[in-house]
Amino acid sequence: MTQTHTEDYQHADGRGARLTFAEPDGSVRGGLVVLHAGVTDTVRLLVAGLAGEGWLAVAPHIGEDGAALSGQDVLAATDVTLAWLVERGVRADLIGVVGFDVGGSAALVVAASRQLGAAVSVGGRGISAPVSDELPPLVEIAGRLTSPWLGMYGDDGDVAGELEVERLQEAASSSKVATNVVRYPGASHRFDADPDAAAEAWQRTLSWFDAHLR
């Protein structure tokens, strides 16, 4: 398993962030920013797994104090992390963002506010009603996507959840970039109730980055 490392990064302009990252053993295909509320053992495994696929993967430490994530916090942390990747020689068109659970909502915020090579949201809530007062409902910003975006959502087999995902899909399709929204009936919003759905979502994530970061 690829090893992860943590450092306190300081940009020349004074911005900084604590980052946990993993580097590929061979050549670097590109860079991926991993968003999640708190850098947990699971996040470290995800970062290491992405590095094992050839990506320089890095997770900024956000939301670790239990406070609700704001769009401003997410974008600020992402911008610093993007600067770190560029300093390490990763071209801008080879950089993407992926978010899990609450980080999935954050990834869509980034994809609607920054021009990246690709973005992926895996799970997460806040489609019609915001996940917190600090983040917008996703259907309100999906039409403004500026980065190719893939969203994957479990709905616990709930009809209301199915309708929410359909609303998000319709909103995203009105944007000017490539989008795809996939619903997994019976999977929880965190994908931890259905290992098969989680494995398929992982493969779809890798395929999306393979297709757009090249």
UniProtKB/TrEMBL annotation:
User: What are the Dienelactone hydrolase domain coordinates in residue numbering?
Assistant: 23-212
Gene3D superfamilies cross-referenced by the UniProt entry: alpha/beta hydrolase
For this protein, the record's SUPFAM superfamilies field holds: alpha/beta-Hydrolases
Q: Name one GO molecular function term.
A: hydrolase activity
Give the record's keywords alphabetically: Hydrolase
- Extract the PANTHER family matched here: ALPHA_BETA-HYDROLASES SUPERFAMILY PROTEIN, CARBOXYMETHYLENEBUTENOLIDASE-RELATED
Quote the protein name from its UniProt record.
Answer: Dienelactone hydrolase family protein
- Annotated source species: Prauserella cavernicola
Its organism's taxonomic lineage begins at:
Bacteria, Bacillati, Actinomycetota, Actinomycetes, Pseudonocardiales
